[in-house]
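re: the backbone from monday

yeah here it is again, tokenized this time
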């Protein structure tokens, strides 16, 4: 190599990796490890082979020994036990010892010997009447260990033999003792003899049977029997298998019983109570099980397992999709609870356990279909309910009926709620605060689960009108609120975290039940009688609900929001508290909204009581942002926000929508040519031709007078405002036939509009678009709508309380029926209603077959609801639906949902109060030589204040094109109102002119009049001329 200039000697480094010596060492270690594992595997295989051989030799030796013992047995006692006498059952005999040793249930010969043995046992026992001496001889105490061993082995052998041969005997499994020649009857009768409660060994037998999973065997026997051709023939006699269960089941849990606790998976509850319709198969067992002490033992056992999160069902009970184990257990438990709860021995602890078990099982079920009325309501309230797509399980109809019939039974709900909510409440002798919280929390959990799974309306009807649930829960919540002790409930309910609000469970039940009550409570009951709560209590309740709702939605919000009314039971198991919180937010908001409706009908509290105390400007800015927490609150509980703040949000959204559309199509304008004497037809034809985007665009109007001449003036917005006011006045005029007036001169769709106009539904669509366009452009129109019709813009359902606004006389008649003390059937009313439109009388059924269905004291509430629904919802459903479709072309539903019906009327028409002249003066600009202190301006404002409200509205229409001012005041008038001097000097020519206006600029051109009287005369003439825009 060449010399590099470096005299030092450096070590050469191989960059190729480790040395070959290190590689060989690593390979040696790997080979050694593989060899060690191979030797270990060979050793394990040899050991396993030895065990298999040992087991096989043992089994073969046992089989040989059994064969030898069987041969000796047959030689001694005969192939059919023909040499057996009663002494063969005594301890000194080898009969039972040999037989129990060699018996194999699969062996047909052994099965015959067993049947013959049991037949002889039955005969000997009936002959002597003493089973104890038959097995123990003269002295049981000295031979008790051997005797106990033999009888428990014999008892299990009988049930095991039936189980092992159940497929062959499937037609003989459900037999009665009277069928004495059938083998299965003989075997089970022998078991019954051995399980006599008077015998000293019965506890040993039951313990042994439970250890060998007798209830699992019984379940499989019953399942096979149901598949057989022969069904259960019950003719008043108890089934042999049922008699065995009647002896075994009550034994467990009794005082002398010392049976060990068995695995919950193989218990009676898990194995037998999960058999579909077990009480129909074993009615006598149902009577025995209905004993309060016995049923309490088993139900408490289930409740304990649930509390400890122990699996209470066997693995194989959920394989049948039609009859899942949880559903069968629920149906059977509810059926027995209906028998147990009414008994005076039923304790509060028992009711708590029943509610706990039922709650746990209800949460596993798919939701049951709603009732007819709920279906009608959901159809009228589109998208109002969240459809649960998670559950795909469909129950057998008969099983579903068993669950719903028992869970919705009025006596069951009445008894359960009375025990839970009354026995634990204040005033009882054994009052315990912790027990009260546990009882109310457990009961509320059950009802919450029932609301989510079963048709809630049927449950709420019972709870609202047949129990004191609302009063009891209110007293509890009121006391907790006053004492600030809400935290006690989470501490006694295991599935509620310690930091969960204590009012969650009471409110999730109280609010929907109270809301349901308010649908039938009339005005006198609510305002005067204080039913169901006094107005003073309602004021406090509003404060409690408002605080709870604000805490849920703003202080401690959920990460995911859902406005649905039903929740997935599958999801509820993953996050039960989160879903309960979400549900409470929904029901509290609904109840507060309903209270606000009652307050709007007749004020009993300040409107500010519904508003949150801490709404800041930051909240208003955030509420405009989609997906924000403030935006969700605005949608969920808009009443928490002051009305003016919501109007600001609404107008901001309108401005953003107009700006967005204007920036996209800045030159797109729709030009309307409108004849004043055909304003409605021209507007309908030209607006109907516009697309949705066209409706959002600007519209410019040219009026044509009666002579066919286009009026002077260029539409800069003012003519369009005038057009909108005139077209709405013409279109909603009752003379046109599309709308009718109530007694209070409020407008609602004419149910008989189709008899006047063939295309009436298209006209309603047009009117909806027309009203939406006015709101979209910020134009107020003087159209007083009925409250029940405004509900349709919010897609709400109207109830009895809304009927006075439509037909006060019909409302009085229905209230008369509601309070009628006599027999209503004597009034000869039927489920039909008479319609009378323009002299044409038609009769319509309220229910299928209603003309033959008489109204009685039992169904009068249903009749009242149906009549109200027909008048308020059904008759105008088509007109309202088409009006809504047109309206929603421009105004989305979520924008309208921010306001209640009364606020929505203000949003459409503005305040009915007189104009605030001072506000207008403060927000007026001046030009052309005028200023705020000019003497003409001072005279002008004096004249304005002297005008009547009607003349003030005429003036406002003259200068702005609309007779109503902005919702939030003249500060928000765009552009600002301006008074401009007309005429450069005070000349006769100038002062003889009339005031003129430019409505597109909100401009008044006012000559410099010399006197107040002259100014008033000229101004009055100008605003009253109604000469179109020619005057300008």
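seq for it, each position gets an aa:
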């Amino acid at each position: 190599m060449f010399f590099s200039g470096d005299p030092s000697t450096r070590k050469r480094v191989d960059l190729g990796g480790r040395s070959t010596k290190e590689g060989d060492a690593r390979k040696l270690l790997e080979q050694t490890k593989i060899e060690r594992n191979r030797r270990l595997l060979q050793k394990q295989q040899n050991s396993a082979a030895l065990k298999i051989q040992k087991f096989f030799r043992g089994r073969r030796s046992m089989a040989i020994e059994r064969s030898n013992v069987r041969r000796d047995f047959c030689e001694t006692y005969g192939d059919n036990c023909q040499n057996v006498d009663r002494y063969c059952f005594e301890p000194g005999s080898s009969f039972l010892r040999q037989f129990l040793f060699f018996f194999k249930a699969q062996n047909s010969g052994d099965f015959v010997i067993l049947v013959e043995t049991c037949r002889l046992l039955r005969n000997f026992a009936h002959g002597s009447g003493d089973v104890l001496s038959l097995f123990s001889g003269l002295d049981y105490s000295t031979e008790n260990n051997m005797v106990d061993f033999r009888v428990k082995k014999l008892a299990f052998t009988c049930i095991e033999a039936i189980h092992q041969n159940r497929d062959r005997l499937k037609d003989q499994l459900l037999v009665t003792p009277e069928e004495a020649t059938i083998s299965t009857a003989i075997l089970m009768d022998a078991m019954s003899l051995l399980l006599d409660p008077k015998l000293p060994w019965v506890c040993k037998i039951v313990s042994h049977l439970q250890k060998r999973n007798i209830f699992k065997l019984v379940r499989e026997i019953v399942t096979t029997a149901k598949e057989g051709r022969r069904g259960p023939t019950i003719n008043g006699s108890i089934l042999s298998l049922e008699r065995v269960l009647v002896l075994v089941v009550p034994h467990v849990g009794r005082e002398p019983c010392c049976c060990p606790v068995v695995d919950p998976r193989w218990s009676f509850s898990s194995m037998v109570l999960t058999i579909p319709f077990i009480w129909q198969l074993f009615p006598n067992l149902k009577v025995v099980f209905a004993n309060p002490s016995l049923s309490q033992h088993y139900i408490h056992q289930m409740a304990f397992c649930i509390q400890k999160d122990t699996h209470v069902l066997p693995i194989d009970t959920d394989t049948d999709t039609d009859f899942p184990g949880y559903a069968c257990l629920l149906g059977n438990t509810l059926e027995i609870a209906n028998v147990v709860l009414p008994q005076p021995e039923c304790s509060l602890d028992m009711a708590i356990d029943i509610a706990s078990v039922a709650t746990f099982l209800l949460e596993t079920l798919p939701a049951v279909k709603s009732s007819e009325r709920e279906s009608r309501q959901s159809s009228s309230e589109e998208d109002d309910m969240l459809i649960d797509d998670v559950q795909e399980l469909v129950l057998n109809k008969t099983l579903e009926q068993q669950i719903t019939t028992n869970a919705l039974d009025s006596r069951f709900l009445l008894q359960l709620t009375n025990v839970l909510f009354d026995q634990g409440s204040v005033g009882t002798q054994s009052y315990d605060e912790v027990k009260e919280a546990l009882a109310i929390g457990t009961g509320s959990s059950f009802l919450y689960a029932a609301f989510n799974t079963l048709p809630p309306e049927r449950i709420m009807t019972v709870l609202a009108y047949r129990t004191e649930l609302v009063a009891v829960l209110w007293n509890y919540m009121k006391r907790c609120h006053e004492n600030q002790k809400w935290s006690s409930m989470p501490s006694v309910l295991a599935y509620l975290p310690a930091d969960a609000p204590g009012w969650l469970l009471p409110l999730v039940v109280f609010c929907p039940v109270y809301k349901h009550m308010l649908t039938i409570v009339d005005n006198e009951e609510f305002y005067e009688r204080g039913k169901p709560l006094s107005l003073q209590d309602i004021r406090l309740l509003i404060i409690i609900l408002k605080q709870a709702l604000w805490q849920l939605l703003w202080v401690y919000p959920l990460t995911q929001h859902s406005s649905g009314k039903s929740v997935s039971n599958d999801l509820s198991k993953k996050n039960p508290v989160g879903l309960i919180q979400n549900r409470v937010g929904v029901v509290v908001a609904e109840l507060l909204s309903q209270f606000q409706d009652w307050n709007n009908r007749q004020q009993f509290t300040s409107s500010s009581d519904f508003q949150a105390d801490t709404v800041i400007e930051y909240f208003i800015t955030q509420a405009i942002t989609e997906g924000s927490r403030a935006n969700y609150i605005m949608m969920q509980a808009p009443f928490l926000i002051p009305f003016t703040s919501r109007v600001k949000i609404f107008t901001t959204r309108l401005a953003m929508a107009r700006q967005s559309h204007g920036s996209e199509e800045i030159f797109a304008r729709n030009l309307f040519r409108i004849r004043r004497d055909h304003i409605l037809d021209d507007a309908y034809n030209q607006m109907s031709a516009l697309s949705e985007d066209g409706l959002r665009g600007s519209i410019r109007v040219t009026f044509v007078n009666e002579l066919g001449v286009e009026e002077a003036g260029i539409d800069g917005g003012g003519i369009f405002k005038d057009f909108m006011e005139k077209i709405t006045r013409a279109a909603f005029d009752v003379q046109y036939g599309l709308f009718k007036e109530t007694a209070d001169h409020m407008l609602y769709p004419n149910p008989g509009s189709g008899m006047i106009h063939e295309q009436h539904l298209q006209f309603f669509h047009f009117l909806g678009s027309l009203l939406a366009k006015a709101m979209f452009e910020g134009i107020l129109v003087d159209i007083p709508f009925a409250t029940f019709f405004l509900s349709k813009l919010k897609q709400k359902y109207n109830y009895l309380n809304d009927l006075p606004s439509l037909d006060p006389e019909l409302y009085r008649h229905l209230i008369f029926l509601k309070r009628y003390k006599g027999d209503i059937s004597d009034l000869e009313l039927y489920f039909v209603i008479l319609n009378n439109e323009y002299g044409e009388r038609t009769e319509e059924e309220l229910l299928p077959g209603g003309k033959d269905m008489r109204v009685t004291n039992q169904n009068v509430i249903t009749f009242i609801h149906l009549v109200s629904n027909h008048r308020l919802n059904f008759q105008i459903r088509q007109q309202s639906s088409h009006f809504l479709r047109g309206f929603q072309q421009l105004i989305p539903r979520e924008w309208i949902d921010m306001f209640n019906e009364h606020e929505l009327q203000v949003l459409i028409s503005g305040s009915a109060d007189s104009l605030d002249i001072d506000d207008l003066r403060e927000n007026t600009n001046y030009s052309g030589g005028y200023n705020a202190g000019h003497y003409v301006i001072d005279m002008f404002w004096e004249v304005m204040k002297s005008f009547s409200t009607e003349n003030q509205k005429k003036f406002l229409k003259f200068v702005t094109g609309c007779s109503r001012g902005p919702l939030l005041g003249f500060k928000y008038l765009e552009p600002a109102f301006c008074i401009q001097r007309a005429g450069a000097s005070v000349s006769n020519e100038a002062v003889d002119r009339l005031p003129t206006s430019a409505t597109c600029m909100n401009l008044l051109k006012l000559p410099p009049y010399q006197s107040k009287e002259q100014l008033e005369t000229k101004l009055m003439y100008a605003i009253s001329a109604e000469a179109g825009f020619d005057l300008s």
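The mean pLDDT is 82. The CA atoms of residues 103 and 110 lie 6 Å apart.
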